[in-house]
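Late entry, evening session. Most of the bench is empty. Finally got around to the prediction I had been postponing all week. Sequence below, unchanged from the version circulated by S.P.
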Amino acid sequence: MPFAFTRMNKIIGILTGDGDCPGINAVIRAVVRKSIVYGNTVIGFRKSWKGILEKDIYPLDMNAVSDLMAKGGTILGSSRTNPFKYEEGPETILKHLRELNVEALVAVGSLDTLMVAEKLFERGCPVVGIPKTIDNDLPLTDRTFGFDTAISTVTEVIDRVHSTAESHDRVIIIEVMGRYTGWIATYAGIAGGADCILIPEKPFSIDDVCKLIRRRHQRGKDFSIIVAAEGARPKEHNRFIVKTDRVDEFGHKQLGGIGNFIAQEIERLTGFETRVTILGPMQRGGAPTAFDRVLATRFGVKAADMAERGAYGKMVSLQGNDIIEVKLSDLIDKVKPVDSALYEIAEVFFG
């Protein structure tokens, strides 16, 4: 059944999916505030698509979004729910949106959430997407909010471990997020002066890493800082290092452990004392930077404008300094790899 409404004001739904991310609450705030300007009402759905499946609603008004700008996480909660993994899941989503008189849905998430949004749009769902990921790996947008906060956090950690690595003549591995791309590792590694950066786009040889460390020792540098994305792959294995073989509803395994693998190999091959720091959720947490607060706000306002105009099947995007609209369908099966020219700059400072 197609969506058909005649009221002057709209009910706008919003959900947040995939991993939490600094700036989500700023997006929610912006969508609500701009929608109110249009005379529209906004309701949130808790725990991503699960909230629509279960009609778990979070009312959003001026008071609900007050003082959200600096708050980390998401007041709506999140989950890895994939409605296409449930019997009649997509049909239930559409049915519940009609029953709740939701005339436009704003889906905030990374590739998995946005691809669900695209599939639902093809079935008649009036959806607008907002890209969100600390990994900055979504194509069609120059930046995603949360990325700036993540690289600032990782850079601070690199700065802090530098002194202890130098004091104890240690190799320290810093494992950061990045399943298929190494944007966090590359940006933070450059900013923090890492001696080696390992990313998924360029499988590495553990022998080459050890040679680099030995070369540093030969010139009097008895410590090294290595930043490794969790999806970095050693050529000797050419596979992801995973914590478990279990997969989520989108088919993803939980990555983690590359830092420990590298550390064990370095100690075995060089004899140099090596330690590992795995940042994990720390990269997602805390207050967003000023850049991410502004970008999230711009995305949210644009999405509310699109919902008002009925510009469905699209997502907001940053290109240059402009916030534009792009088709959700253009995202299918794509990730944005690290710019090779940027990584070449990082390599200048290896060793």
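Two things to note before I forget:
The CA atoms of residues 152 and 188 lie 7 Å apart.
The radius of gyration is 22 Å.
Will write this up properly tomorrow.
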